[in-house]
Amino acid sequence: MKTVLLTALMLVAAAGSAVAQQPRAAAGAQTPSLGGLLSGVIPPEVSGFSMNIGEELKKVRAAMVDLSVPDSPAFTVLGLTPEEVARPTTARKLATSLLNGVDRNGVLQTGVAIDTLPYLALAGQLLTLDDYRKPSNYALRFLARAQVSVGTAKASDVNDKAMRIGLGVRMTVFDRGDPRTDAALDQCFDDRPGLPAAPQFVPPPSPDTPGEVAEWMQDVERGRQALQTFQADVDSYVTRVTASVADCREQARIRNWNASKLIVAVAPTWTSASGSSDDLGRSGSGVWGTLAYGFEHVPGLQRNAQLLAHARWRGDEPVPTAKDPNVFEPRDSRLLGVQLRAGTANATIAGEGIDERVTPPSGAATTTRRYSIGFERRVADNLWLGVAMGSGKSPAAGQKKSAFVLSSLKWGFAEGPSLKME
Amino acid sequence: MASTPIPVATLTATGGVPEVEIVVGHLHRADYQLLLFDTHGANPVGVGSADGKGKTGDQVPDRFPLALPLADLHRRTLFWQAGIVSFVPEGDSEPFSVTVRVLQDGNIVGLGGGSGVMNRPHASGMFHLKVQG
């Protein structure tokens, strides 16, 4: 393999030189690419050589399992993708949203989808940034980031009245990319447009003696006019600051994409055969956990790489049977996964290992394992050396069956990068 | 701002040095300004610093003394404004709250502030100061 790659790199140098000596093609004329030239000189029988390594790398990227913890575990555990989600931000709105989920007779309503940060909703007025940033206030940070989702759905049952309800709790145990503690984001906010100029006059308090009333009325009128001018300045300030703040947040999002963090979530579900809240019974659950490592303080990797370790478990998940897609049966499953993503302008690597075990209600449990890795490196302008390798054909949970077909090492050249990093 | 009644902070002439404190909730950051106007509603001077400006989240207390003889505070106006910033883009409906309070000897003698949603992340208001006794 090493010999083959070395030979290929020598060919790259030779081909690059040949291309450099060619006269510039006229505009619109078909110019043979360096990759195309190489495909012509490397015999197809060379082990693992792929004429279309870009497509192979795209397959590797597309087949990678989403190893993040769901934003709204309650919806995930119920298999919902609600079009409208209530996101109450105050205690009153939270109470209203919850009450809307049950009618006055205690009958659960379908289509409930609530996602909220309950501590912020209930105690937001009292939560200050200074308190949040105190190193000793971990409990405040934990509670403020804890997210709760609630959803209801018709149970996968022929009985029309049967209802399922899911309650999800998503907890950020730690997050080195927390925007509220990001000093660079704070600095960006410092640089945004300053406050509008304060009014030079304001209406003063009423006088103590009647003799001062005439002068006071003049002062009040002068203050009112100054406040009107001030309000116009506020309008202008709001417009300017909104765009500036959005830009700062976007920069922070890009800067912190790979920050180390640990997020866990649990989502139990209950089912009511009658659709009433009176006879709810436990009916399965989901647990997720993802530990992300962002290579902080590692030169060359701290901005460009992320290592994820993920575990998930689903109990009594209703899945359609093979015989009849309208008939569901509960199954248990667990998935363990590790994923590495790293990319610079000149090189990208993406790889993962997945171990999934599915236990159907009847029959033996099945375990599938697979790994895949893709690597590409720019070796010249518009020429990338790509390597893709993998084993295993079983799709992971939630993946399309045809998503992963790579079963051996393949390499080749492409005119551009194929492993897009986020 | 002008349409709402201006709260009155009633100070005791024999009490301690009054203070003003600004509290910004919902984990937002705010840049603020506190100004003290004379009895004619003119000639503003900064509270806490020359221009009266400060920010939350910097671990510096957002509580400042009104460093004038108590008798001189009578019929003055305390003006405040705050520009609020959210760290997380939750949308324009995200709430904010600013609480401004005037304290004397640890007691709240004037309470004001503003709340709203982040599609207009600015609040301002005033206190009229009254010294009695």
The strand order across the widest sheet of chain A is 1-2-3-4-5-6-7-8-9-10-11
Strand tally of chain A is: 11
Main sheet attributes: strand count, strand direction, barrel closure of chain B: 6 strands, mixed
Beta-sheet strand percentage of chain A?
Answer: 25-35%
Shape, per Cα inertia axes of chain B? elongated
List keywords for this structure.
heterodimer, A: 422 residues, alpha+beta, Porin, 10 helices, 29% helix, B: 133 residues, 6-stranded mixed beta sheet, 10 strands, elongated
Can you put this structure into words, describing what you see?
The complex is a heterodimer of chains A (422) and B (133). In chain A, strands 1-2-3-4-5-6-7-8-9-10-11 form an eleven-stranded antiparallel beta sheet, with helices on both faces. Mean pLDDT of chain A is 83; it is low at 1-30 and 396-403. Chain A has helices spanning 2-21, 34-41, 53-63, 73-78, 91-99, 118-123, 129-133, 138-145, 183-190, 213-255; strands at residues 113-116, 147-154, 163-175, 261-272, 281-293, 305-320, 328-343, 347-359, 366-380, 383-391, 410-414. Chain A is built from ten helices and eleven strands. The longest helix of chain A has 43 residues, at 213-255. Helices cover 29% and strands 29% of the residues of chain A. Chain A is α+β, with helices and mostly antiparallel strands and 422 residues long. Chain A is flat. In chain A, α1 crosses α2 and α9 (183-190) crosses α10 (213-255). Chain A folds into two domains: 2-62 and 187-251, no CATH class; 73-177 and 259-412, monomeric porin ompg (Porin, Beta Barrel). Chain B is mostly beta strands and 133 residues long. In chain B, 0% of the residues lie in helices and 52% in strands. In chain B, strands 1, 3, 4, 5, 7 and 10 form a six-stranded mixed beta sheet that branches. Chain B is elongated and about 50 Å long. Classes of the chains: A alpha+beta (422), B mainly beta (133).
Protein topology:
The complex is a heterodimer of chains A (422) and B (133).
Chain A: H1 2-21, H2 34-41, H3 53-63, H4 73-78, H5 91-99, E1 113-116, H6 118-123, H7 129-133, H8 138-145, E2 147-154, E3 163-175, H9 183-190, H10 213-255, E4 261-272, E5 281-293, E6 305-320, E7 328-343, E8 347-359, E9 366-380, E10 383-391, E11 410-414
Helix pairs in contact in A: 1-2, 9-10
Chain B: E1 8-12, E2 19-24, E3 29-37, E4 45-46, E5 53-55, E6 63-65, E7 77-85, E8 95-104, E9 107-117, E10 122-132
Parallel strand pairs in B: 1-10
Antiparallel strand pairs in B: 2-6, 2-8, 3-4, 3-5, 3-7, 7-10, 8-9
